[in-house]
Amino acid sequence: MTYTLADLPMLGGLDDGRLRGLEAAARRRRYPAGQVLCTEGDPAEHLIVLLDGRVKAGRASPEGREVLLAVEAAPVAFDKTALLVDGPHRATLTALTPVEVAYLPRSTVLGLVAAEPTVAARLLRTLAATVRDLDDRLTDAAVRDVPSRVATWLVRRCAGGRVPLHAGQAGLGAEIGASRVSVNRALRGFERRGMIEIGTGEVIVLDPHALSHLAALPPPP
User: Fold this and answer.
1) Sheet with 76-78, side-by-side order of all strands
2) CB-based contact 53:76 (threshold 8 Å)
3) What number is the average pLDDT over the span 111-121?
4) C-alpha R_g of the chain
5) In the chain, what are the domains?
6) ∠218-132-106 over CA atoms, to 5°?
7) What is the DSSP-derived secondary structure letter of residue 87?
8) Predicted local confidence at residue 120, as pLDDT
9) What is the arithmetic mean of pLDDT over 65-86?
10) Residues 54/94, Cβ–Cβ less than 8 Å
């Protein structure tokens, strides 16, 4: 499904005239899977808005190994913080599927934030949620074992019963701070206990209540 700029949470509620101005300023592009959208360390001169498809965000370790930070699906905007502080891209973005992207110039975005208090408020809420998520991930990595972290990751995504592994078990491990081997061991343990079924590129959650108990979270609706 291809989204529009109006579907981006931080731009929701803008009037038609303002949205038409943003559309006129945006540069739209389509890319195949595997295309690099931006590289870590490059100047962040545009807000990168993903309108269709999925993208992974990764950074390079000192040894040259990719560290996966996140896998995101449209609609989402990347590098909002870098744009606000006039800094470089904090991660390399790579298309996992064919994607459609809109590039909004930094000056356009900053002008919008200055002129529209509702946009500024939504942006602050988005950044606050990002900080909270990072804090949760760091705390989990420090005090919780891998099975409970994997269970938490699954419970938070299993509303439909099926949880896609867009970047495989290695990607899941990168998101929760664990090795692929440790993630696989945890998933196999859940499968033996009848909590899940490991499919091709996905995990099918069979017993969300048992997973929620293991993760110490409320069961999903």
Assistant:
1) 27-31, 99-105, 46-52, 76-78
2) no
3) 90
4) 19
5) 5-115 (2.60.120.10), 144-216 (1.10.10.10)
6) 135
7) -
8) 87
9) 83
10) no
Q: Specify the pTM.
A: 0.74
N-to-C CA span, the chain: 25
* Alpha carbon distance 172, 180 (integer Å): 8
Q: Confirm if 106 and 46 have CB atoms less than 8 A apart.
A: yes
Secondary structure (H, E, C), 56-80: EEEEECCCCCEEEEEEEECCEEECH
Q: Please report how the helices 117-143 and 146-155 are oriented relative to each other, as an axis angle in degrees rounded to 10.
A: 150
Distance of alpha carbon 73 from alpha carbon 142, whole angstroms? 28
Q: Which helix (H) or strand (E) holds 55?
A: strand 54-60
Local structure of residue 86 (DSSP, 8 states): T
Residue with tokens 């609609």: 75
Confidence band of 151 (pLDDT split at 50, 70, 90): very high
pLDDT at 219: 60
Look up residue 208 and give its amino acid.
Answer: P
Token match 């990347």: residue?
Answer: 78
Predicted confidence (pLDDT) at residue 148 exceeds the cutoff of 80: yes
As a whole number of angstroms, the distance between CA 169 and CA 120 comes to 36
One-letter identity of residue 102 = A
